[in-house]
Amino acid sequence: MPDASGAFARLFSIIQRLRAPDGCPWDRQQSPRTLRAALLEEAWECISAIDARDDPNMEEELGDLYLLATMMAWMKEEEGAFTVESVLSRIADKLVRRHPHVFGDRRVGSAEQVLIQWDAIKAQEKAEQGGGHSASGGSRPSRGSMPGGGFGPSGVPPHPSSLDGVPSSFPPLERAAKLQKKAAKVGFDWPGPAPVWAKIHEELRELRGAVEAESAESVEDEVGDLLFSVVNLARLLKVDPALALNRTNVKFERRFREVEHRLAQEGTEPKDAGLERMDSLWNQVKSEELPGAGGSESATGSAEAAGAESAPGGPQKASK
After folding, report:
1. Model pTM?
2. 168-320 belongs to which homologous superfamily?
3. In 11, 112, 275, 293, which residue has its Cα 20 to 30 A from 216's Cα atom?
């Protein structure tokens, strides 16, 4: 029988040894802050393994995530902030508390009802804690969770908001999606995807106007509005925008590398080939990947838009 508890105990003891006074100099120099980038990188590498259905690589990447999470928790235990045990106990308690249909006597009929119940229990926990740091993991507005720094001109924390708990340290794409989900849960949302198409085209027109006016600040503002609207559409279509963009990044890299490879076979450098030739090769590569696919797509990513018009965001399945 697999011994998960024994394996975790071994990992934990190794981490403690690495962080000991006579341990590894590099590991001893690290802190949760220095490991932030590694945490993001390992998470994305794990996602790539999942997308590739590469179980051996996924096994390795999950191990890297276990390492980082456990090491950060041990660092905080060394500081006296909290312990590895308290981290594990807290998430275990939360799972039991938010699954009364499994660990209690409540009944639910569908996965959708489970998510509704999860949000209701989470909201109740926050209310019982009076907006403070709750057992649910939520917290009152802080400088780290508020846009632009967190406090008003008087230095008084702003009024509690439905958007509390979305860290400003989130990457912008993920933060936009999370803010929209939070607003949607209290009813500030689009009725469905259809009007968002119109909003996207409205933002495109406003962006074109800003470009024609040669206003750099307005262009940046309108590009942001356009991206925010696209994130709204993705959310309403039940697509994670960060995962969708990652998928396109992978696709673009794969196809462009093949374009470079074919140019190399011709004895040509990309910078000398010209856009027309590279576009032609791009469409060849695409047609070979997607036999029978209609239309063509420019190597530069250009595409034709369809028209329509716009207002706020739309329900997505709630998430834990």
Report:
1. 0.57
2. MazG-like (1.10.287.1080)
3. 275
